[in-house]
């Protein structure tokens, strides 16, 4: 179940990021790492409160929270696909 969710959510993240002009693979890998870490952290916290199979529910909640965080990061990315090369050059010179 987790692999299917990761597959479909990663495709959605890839589409959103590529529309904004960013590298989609970097953010897909970022999403997968956050999902796994959220799952591990959720299960670790779950072992403090429950035993048995209910620990996996905590892991799923941790993974969902991590996915929401990743989608928030992607939504907050600036849209660089609309910046023309001349504007990007002038902005980089102004920042020096």
What percent strand? under 5%
Distance between the termini: 49 Å
Order of helices and strands: HHHH
Count of distinct strands: 0
Count of folded domains: 1
Radius of gyration: 18 Å
Low-confidence stretches: none
Question: How confident is the prediction overall: mean pLDDT?
Answer: 87
Write up what this structure looks like.
The chain contains four helices and no strands. The radius of gyration is 18 Å and the shape is elongated. With 96 residues, it is mostly helical. The chain has helices at residues 2-19, 24-49, 54-75, 85-95. The chain has one domain. The mean pLDDT is 87.
Which helices and strands appear, and what pairs or packs with what?
Elements: H1 2-19, H2 24-49, H3 54-75, H4 85-95
Helix pairs in contact: 1-2, 1-3, 2-3
Brief synopsis:
This protein has about 100 residues and is mainly alpha-helical.
Features:
96 residues, mainly alpha, 80% helix, elongated
